[in-house]
Design a protein that fits this description.
By secondary structure, chain A is mainly α. Helix content of chain A is 77%, strand content 2%. Chain A has a two-stranded antiparallel sheet with strand order 1-2. In chain A, helix 3 runs parallel beside helix 14, helix 4 runs antiparallel to helix 5 and helix 4 packs parallel to helix 10. Classes of the chains: A mainly alpha, B mainly alpha. The interface between A and B is medium-sized, with 30 and 30 residues.
Chain lengths: 488, 92
Amino acid sequence: MSLPATATLVVILVTLPLAAATLLFASGRQPRTLTLAAALLLTFAALALGGNVYLEGVSVHAIGGWAAPLGIHWQVTPAGTVMLVATALVGLAGAVYGAGYFLHRPGPDGRMARVFMPLWLFAWGGLNALFVAADLFNLYVALEVLTLASVALVALSARRMALQAAMRYLLAGLFGSVIYLLGVALLYGQYGVLDFATLTAMLDPEDPGSRAGAVALTVGLLIKAAIFPLHFWLPGAHGRAEPPVSAMLSGLVVAAAFYLLLRLWFGPLAEMLSFGVGVLFGALGAGALFWGGMLALLQRRLKMLVAYSTVSQFGFAMLVFPLAGGDHRGTVFVGGTLLLANHALAKAALFLAAGTLVRASGSDRIGTLVGFAGRAHWAWLAVILASAALIGMPPTLGFSAKWLLLQAAVADGAWVWLGVMLGGTLLTFAYLGRLLELALLDPAPGPSPPPPLTAALLLPALLLALLACLAGLWAMDVEAIARLESGT
Amino acid sequence: MSLPPGTLFLLAAALLFAIGAHGLVTCRHLLRKVLALNVTTTGVFLLLVTLGRSGTGVDPVPHAMVLTGIVVALSTTAVALGLIVRLERRQP
């Protein structure tokens, strides 16, 4: 296929979800079939784009034919495409799950289903726009679309605790955005450009104004990516939202902010990534890894455990920055991207399966979860597969990602970070293992009669977890890694 | 001693940002927090507009950014206010 196809696919990926969401919202009817059709089309577009990029590499599109710096560019990179495909898979799985999840709940939840689908598509569109944007200000707008859709999704669950969590999330998210915008303003004041390519060429790493701008961009994104110690808003928002919402927030929305951090520090700000900055990022990561891991180990509620696991896993992702200083920047960048993709699939699977198990058990306390009884065993299978991917057992995508990072750490002799990675992996193993042990060795009987578990509640999680495991086989191919690296 | 042009605006922008950030952390009432956030955003907008004013003329790009930013701020404020209303209605 030739380049116009890629351009068309990108336009579909960004505009279709926003247009469909607006239409669905305005029509106000039961939009299940329409949403699922849009979700399928988006997934197809993302997969086709993945094929194109795999064959052709990076492509750049000037919107409306206006070139940078005055015009706006979309840039389709291999790493961005990995995120677009992960978004599509989680988006489709969540839409199917949501259709099944909100269906069987009587009363005001009919309204919930009506609002869930448009918001889901808004968030999806924001994510797609973010992964193809290549200038600082467009990224700000995409981040805001994403934040607003996410907050509204958390507030879907009308319980007071969820509303409070949504409010805290909104304030933290908006404050992060303002600080990010401050960074944009400072950098624009120095150089008068916004797009990544020009900025990379112009940036002077010694200039104090640019440094202040870099700090502001980073702090804003650290809040949005919930990196320890700025993670305070995450467990409540992710733990108290409805299950499909938690899946998207934990799997993708946090990852989007982190992906932006990755692009900035491996792109325009790369010259500023000194040893000291790397160590600072690594220390934050180690803190997140152990703090989040310890709290996950102490949780008594299933969804809170999974939420704290996200804090911990993004600590792991922060370790790419101290490793980027060596000779293996390309490998580390790919490792970081695959880590995000693995987390997106596995964490979404874990949250979806958790939602099913909570419904089957009638409570989300870990001590009262049903065991392998009835059809719940499919959900447990998804939990086990997703846990394997999060821990990074071969041949999962998590293993491939961690393997790339470990290789870089060994080659650079970064023994401290190697130790942190191994310790973090053990901790992940500990809290997920504890969950499985508590729930499966001492299962509760569950309510009788058991609530119906339809295929929509079981299959999406299982398929996502399976994909996280099988994608590792693809990512072990040396050529695939080289093609991913070409986009950095 | 004469200050370079725009210094006053830059100082005002910094002051607005600081007032807003302080308010966001110290105020307890949610409505005040939302207002404080708006003050912070205004500080950043003022910074952007000031940076767009150079010796040779006015750069339109920061103005476009601020216009977009105002639309974004309006939407986020509306969502925040809606959320506060829903929270108040659920007051135990």
